[in-house]
Predict the 3D structure of the following.
Amino acid sequence: MPRKQEDRDIGIALLGLGNVGAGVVKLLEDNAAAIRDRLGARIVVRAIAVRAPGKKKRLVEVDPALLTTDINATIDRDDVDVVCELIGGETEARAAVLRAIERGKHVVTANKALLAAHGEEIFAAAEARGVDVYYEAAVCGGVPIIRALREGLASDRVEWLLGIVNGTSNYILTEMADKGRAFGDVLKEAQDKGYAEADPTLDVSGGDAAHKLAILLMLAFGTTVDAAAIPREGIDTLDPIDFEYAKRFGYVIKPVVYGHEHAGGVEARVHPAMVPDRWMLADVAGARNALYVHSYALGPSMYYGAGAGMMPTAMAVVSDVIEIARNIQAQSGGARPARRHRAIARKPLLDPGDVRSRYYLRFTVADKPGVLGRLTTVLGERDVSIRQVVQHGSGGADGGGPVHVVVLTHEARERDVRAALATISSLPAVTSPARLIRVFE
Ligand code: HSE
């Protein structure tokens, strides 16, 4: 009788032993028995490629004999079935992943920047070589959103999606809104907790969210988009006063991504937005992530959980390894699963100027007769219809000083709103640039 495939250990190599790599080692130890029961085999770490094997302080204890600086030799080992790329960045990671594929190894990666920039090349190489590339940890940390889109909704057609996919920026906005804390302090804390990217500007500028949105668009709409071309605004320009006003109007400010397939192309954007405080998305706090998906047959569905951090992300990586191990056991690793990741078309991104949205506009103006009328006239001339206007404060003891005028609009075209703001900013009564935040209803 031939030995059953299920009895064979699955050998893995880790490239990187930072936050996520350490979590993978810990999870494989902590859940070893359960994983073995579920898989009928052990997952064994054969080697770990690191930059400094002699480093004293690590997040987890490992057998020093496993550590090496030689990435290529680690990938090439005969006893390695799956290479887990956990080094981040693009150049070195791309070379490592392509080498692994070329050597016939399956790949697990948590690297959204890599997939957003080189996904097409990587998936094509994997398909040609007949190996798997899994990447559940790349979007929404531990929340199994890739599986939900790829498998759970395989028979459905996604119409649009709206979500919070960057834990760091959600953590920062939650702390600023709930505790009035300063941006810089909270960012430092998010870094200490291991939520932020090595370069945290990616988190706060919306770059990380754009990478994740590009992956979601590929799965949801079967399209490849250039993540760098997705219009985005960061959370670093928000002013604390807008959290206060949002609350008064019944909204919460959240860092969102939005994707919507239209007949003429894909609408995609990353920015802070106001969402009604009664929505479930408004309650997604701290480093949690959530994705609300609207699909043709299922209608609405929502996926929620820990979007960043060592163990949630490691959980997704190890679950991918288990999935690949099952494919190996079934001897189906390769072309079929890899094909499921491929984009089918290149659909154009809609011009942001043509996109319609509701807006919160905050003007700082002199509290003088006729100013409000002028503002609303300019908006009206540009076809921007007003839903609500509130003036906050009064212009000091003598009047005339600066006050905030907040306008909530009905749905309007972005090009029209921008044109109105340009005209308004040139009015003598306007004392500082208008603030614009999109509103979902
Ligand atoms: N920096 C990322 C975040 C990590 O804050 O969401 C998880 O991808």
In short: Residues 5-141+309-332 form a domain with the Rossmann fold fold (CATH 3.40.50.720). The pocket of L-homoserine is lined by residues 141, 166-168, 195-197, 203, 208, 307-308 (CB under 6 Å). The mean pLDDT is 93. Residues 134 and 323 are 9 Å apart (CA to CA).
